[in-house]
Amino acid sequence: MNSKVKMMVAIAGAVVVSAAGAGGAVxxxxxxxxxxxxxxxxxxxxxxxxxxPLKYVTLEKVIVMLRRGPNDADTHYLSTDLVLAADPxxxxxTKENLPLLRSLAVRTLSSYSMAEASAMTVxxxxxxxxxSFDAGYEHEHTEKPFAQVMIGKLIIE
Length: 157
Fold this sequence. Notes:
Blueprint: H1 3-29, H2 33-46, E1 55-65, E2 77-86, H3 91-96, H4 98-109, H5 114-119, H6 122-139, E3 148-156
Antiparallel strand pairs: 1-2, 2-3
């Protein structure tokens, strides 16, 4: 190549690199919608909430054997850790009710077969347990000492 062609290639390369750098700088310094939304969320989160803070009580290692299907020779298990969202004033009462809650959870979860259990989402498990706990406390004519049950861990094998 002669020197004029080398000079033109070098100038063209410099122009491309400069344009890319300028474009990158513009992109970097532009306000991003996600960042603006995130900072708005932070401001929102910093405001004190009107509701009372909740205490979380755990019910660990609820293990059940799942029902066998018609052609299922294997034994399958479901293990879960539950988290109960309770009012701080009712935390002690919630802890005292853990044996009852374990019994209700075992009764509810052991009614599933492996196929049913595998097809369910975590939200569906929580919903089924919440319904079971509501019915159990209604049957006993007592007030439920916690707001809701959540799934902390779920293992099906």
